[in-house]
Amino acid sequence: MNIKNLIDRMMQGSRTPLWLIIFGVLIGLIAIGTINTVSDKTSTDTYCMSCHVHPWAEQTWRLSPHNFNRTGITVHCVDCHLPPKGEGYLLAKAKHGAKDVYGYLFKDSAKINWADKRLLENAKTFTYEASCIKCHSNLFPVTLSVNGSNAHMQYKNSKEDPKPTCISCHLNVGHYDKNVKHEHDTNFGVDAAASQEKFASSTKVTKFENFTEKIPGTTVAFDMVAIPEGTFNMGSPDNEPLRKSDEGPVRKVKLSKFWMGKIEVSWNEYLAFFMATASQGRTEGQVLTNKKVDAITGPTPPWGAPDQGWGKGSRPAITMSWRSANTYCQWLSQVTGKKYRLPTEAEWEYACRGNTTTPYFFEGDPSKFTSNGLLKKIFGPDTTKINSYIVYKENGASKTMDPNSVKANPFGLKNMTGNIAEFCSDYYAPDAYKGGTGLVVNPQGPESGQEHVIRGGSFKSDAKDVRSAARDFTKTKAWLSTDPQMPKSVWWYSDCVDNGFRIVCEADSISGQ
Q1: Tens digit of pLDDT for each residue in 211-254?
Q2: Is-contact 151 484, C-beta < 8 A?
Q3: Which CATH number fits domain 211-509: 3.40.50.150, 1.10.10.10, 3.90.1140.10, 3.90.1580.10?
């Protein structure tokens, strides 16, 4: 059958003129050609940079392995930030393009939290796994290190939900960050102050009052606040806005007096422990098989930069494991002659509340402070009051802050909520408050468990999660997902950058108290 006969058959029974059909086909071809041309023109690096005006995007890309490398290969913006063609490319381009144009026209780029956009949980929304695999189809090249092979094997065989992605480990290969290292940081801690005069002994305490502890053999000192004995209602009532079920039922708790750190354990304090106890040559396997009990064994070298390049000093120490924090307390007890430990969950909440009974230790409604909800996302939450007391998602700049950036609570403690979440000594259980009535004295939490309680929320948290009663727990497996070592570290979390700890000192461990 020739073309003329085919057209004649198509036209049978149709009143549409042949010229109109041909015209429609031509218009369709022109439209397809125009779409492809527009797509190509708007997919160049220059066009992307004209809209993405944040200051670090182009510079960090040019310095990254995706551009600055020995092969001469350049990986372009759309190669990572759109899926491969034929796998939803145009749809993703339209979606991201519409969002970018809206932001460019109607938002002030100077007020956008660009650091927050670089966090893994946000980067996953505009970086495509299929695009990574398209180029890096061989996950086990001959040049890959042992740790790299271990990590890729974990990735390939992972049954986690959600499964780790390529950027879980390689977040900064597209945009260079000098603070990110894919290796053991064997120089970690060597920049700790060493030239100043060191304390010969710890602080002698004779009264139950605030004191400044001195760590012998170091230049490090920190403030401890006297928390009086008292009784309080632990947990949140059923009518508290945005509460969770594991915060109740409310129970009455009585606590003995204790001291608590005025701020979270700082890098200055933690590095004193690290330098005194760590051994740069040890491996995780040697730690787990070490049978010595005559001295406290400290952390192995961290993987990468635990401080994330945000700075050390008085900033809170982060990324150490619960075991590491607990070992720090044992070491501090040994060198000072006092009994230091992690707070119980009850001690933490009592100290946080400071004799208040409201959702926060200051007046305020969580439903007004939260950023959840469509209207809050458009117009923003009410931050006037909360900003003075808490470093959280709305004002935290996506990193830890110096403790002097907020006001203290009624007991004189800073950053009890926000900045970083804090370990407690208790095992976590969602029903820990249930069972039994009446007054509970100095509760220690469940006798056993898999994970430990963390309290306070962090710079990543919404306002609902920095309430005094809000609870959370460690997630050991998830927080070690990208650790390439076999076995994985027992000292450092590879995938948690907003957890740390605060210490308490037992009053009855000091003579006369």
Answers
A1: 999 999 999 999 999 999 999 999 999 999 999 999 999 999 99
A2: yes
A3: 3.90.1580.10
